[in-house]
Write a structure and sequence with these properties.
There is one protein chain. This protein is an alpha/beta fold. It folds into 3 domains: about 170 residues, Rossmann fold (3-Layer(aba) Sandwich); about 130 residues, Alpha Horseshoe (Serine Threonine Protein Phosphatase 5, Tetratricopeptide repeat), CATH 1.25.40.80; about 170 residues, Orthogonal Bundle (DNA Cyclobutane Dipyrimidine Photolyase, subunit A, domain 3). Helix content is about 45%, strand content about 5%. It is built from 21 helices and 7 strands. Strands 5-4-3-6-7 form a 5-stranded parallel sheet, sandwiched between helices.
């Protein structure tokens, strides 16, 4: 699994500084995989370089692209669709929809820069070898992904290409810090967020993002590309109308989202981020997952905004918004060091948990027909838009796990297929946090009451009324417990009593504490 060599990681090897050195004429740089010093092979013939794009669909702040440009010669932008190489976590339906839109936007960005995207189907290694022959390129550059299957695949690709004499290098474009560079005082990975993030903040801030190249030389016309539609990413049945209405995938849309959030919602984020009835969050998660925006761009965008607002460094660096970016880093830290966690609990005692099998209740949860309006509203928002407010994600997860006693993996799989921001690291952390079986997890005995959670975070019922229109005329007093209204309401009755379910869940938890591993 160790595609990288954290033991060789050294200080002073930031990619931004490395790219700057190359652009300045220094052909020495740091391989982000190992931290070792690398000297670029002299590109006397100005041979082409291939840039293998994956979850980094942007031109700005893209170390692999910048390295290829500085290397000299034409740049061949390539996207290879090989979902089988990501098994068992191939992209879900909502992610495939976003990927299609993001690739279309990225194609337009490349055309504006004078280039074009070469689209191929996998396998990745064989396709890259074909492209090296077709283009006469002598190097392949790409940016890291952190899913266990992809790490293993990338290591094999790099080894095979180097064995044939090609230059193959990869870089950090998606995190503030590589997962293997952050260690606790014992030299081990962190499992608790607060000391992890404190460690991150004590380090120098990320380098300044590199701007997009203004001009790129297009690949030779003889290098053929599949049309985007050949990847068959879009649904055969047109269910994506709500996604189209809610999102603008792509690098431009990502930058606009960040700017609008900072201007309109940052100041109140610490309070309003828990209110699904308000536009209080950034909604940057899918843009970050697909690499349309980098965390370095978010960091420096916030720093510039804070400077204009005369906020101190302490103020913006300790802000709740930046802390949420830290949770994203923490999720990738855990996934890298504990690659089994997408399918198994980090806390081994939870392997003995007596999960129920109840397809009927699972289906009711998926459809947003549990009888608990805040849960149903969240699940319906997810189905319509491919996204769900983070507070509501915690509520619906708690309901599945602790009210229905269904395995957290059932929820993780459903989210994986329906979220446009489905990210293996964050999806795993989120579900294990709620289940109490992951890193820095919420205690299992913390069981969210779906009624009181709705009353607290959707006090006027506006969120519920939007996604559960059959309750639109119900007074505020009953909006989160329609079964208690004095007049009958045409709404599904609760599929479980929360009071009873809570006691059953706590009894099940008590049993695993007494079962030997």
């Amino acid at each position: 699994m160790q595609a990288f060599d954290p033991a060789q990681t050294g200080p002073g090897c930031g990619l931004i500084q490395a790219v700057g050195a190359i652009a300045a004429g220094d052909n020495r740089f740091c391989d982000s995989d190992s931290g070792r010093s690398i000297t670029l092979k002299p590109n006397v013939t100005k041979a082409s370089s291939i840039v293998w794009f994956r979850l980094d669909l942007r031109l700005a702040d893209n170390p692999a692209l910048q390295t290829a440009v500085a290397h000299g010669g034409p740049v061949v932008p390539v996207f290879i669709y090989a979902p089988g190489e990501e098994a068992p976590w191939e992209p879900g339906a909502a992610s495939r929809w976003w990927l299609h839109q993001s690739l279309a936007s990225f194609q337009a960005r490349l055309r504006a820069a004078g280039s074009r995207l070469i689209i191929r189907l996998g396998p990745s290694l064989g396709t890259l070898k074909d492209l090296l022959k077709e283009t006469g390129a002598n190097s392949v550059f790409w940016n890291h992904c952190y899913e266990p299957a992809v790490i293993a695949r990338d290591a094999k690709v790099k080894e095979a290409l180097r064995a044939e004499g090609f230059q193959a290098e990869s870089f950090n474009a998606g995190l503030l810090h590589e997962p293997w560079t952050i260690k606790n005082q014992s030299g081990k990975p962190f499992q608790v967020f607060t000391p992890f993030w404190r460690n991150c903040l004590a380090r120098p801030g990320p380098g300044t993002p590199v701007p997009a190249p203004r001009k790129l030389t297009a690949p030779q016309s003889s290098v053929k590309s599949l049309p985007l539609d050949a990847l068959e990413l879009l649904p055969r049945i047109n269910w994506a109308g709500g996604l189209r209405a809610a999102w603008t995938p792509g690098e431009v849309g990502a930058a606009e989202n960040l700017g609008q959030f900072l201007a309109k919602a940052f100041d109140a984020y610490g309070v309003q981020r828990n209110r699904p009835d308000l536009l209080g969050t950034s909604r940057l998660s899918p843009h970050l997952h697909f690499g349309e925006l980098s965390p370095r761009q978010v960091w420096h965008g916030l720093a510039r905004f804070a400077s204009k607002r005369e906020l101190s460094s302490t103020q913006w660096r300790s802000s709740q918004f930046l802390t949420e970016l830290g949770w994203r880093e923490f999720a990738h830290h855990l996934l890298f060091h504990f690659p089994h966690t997408p399918n198994e609990p980090l806390r081994a005692d939870f392997k003995k948990f007596p999960w129920r099998k109840d397809p009927s209740s699972l289906r009711a949860w998926q459809r947003g027909c549990t009888g608990y309006p805040i849960v149903d509203a969240g699940m319906r928002e997810l189905w319509s838009t491919g996204w769900m407010h983070n507070r509501v994600r915690m509520i619906v997860a708690s309901f599945l796990i602790k009210d229905l006693l269904l395995a957290w993996t059932e929820g993780a799989r459903w989210f994986w297929d329906t979220l446009v921001d489905a990210d293996l690291a964050q999806n795993t952390l989120g579900w294990q946090w709620t289940a109490g079986c992951g890193g820095d997890a919420s205690p299992f005995f913390r069981v969210f009451n779906p009624v009181s959670q709705g009353q607290k975070f959707d006090p006027l019922g506006n969120y519920v009324r939007r996604w559960c229109p059959e309750l639109s005329e119900l007074p505020d007093k009953w909006i989160h417990q329609p079964w208690a209204a004095p007049s009958p309401v045409k709404y599904p009755p609760p599929i479980v009593s929360h009071v009873v379910a809570r006691e059953v869940a706590l009894e099940a938890f008590a049993r695993i504490k007494s079962v030997p591993l």
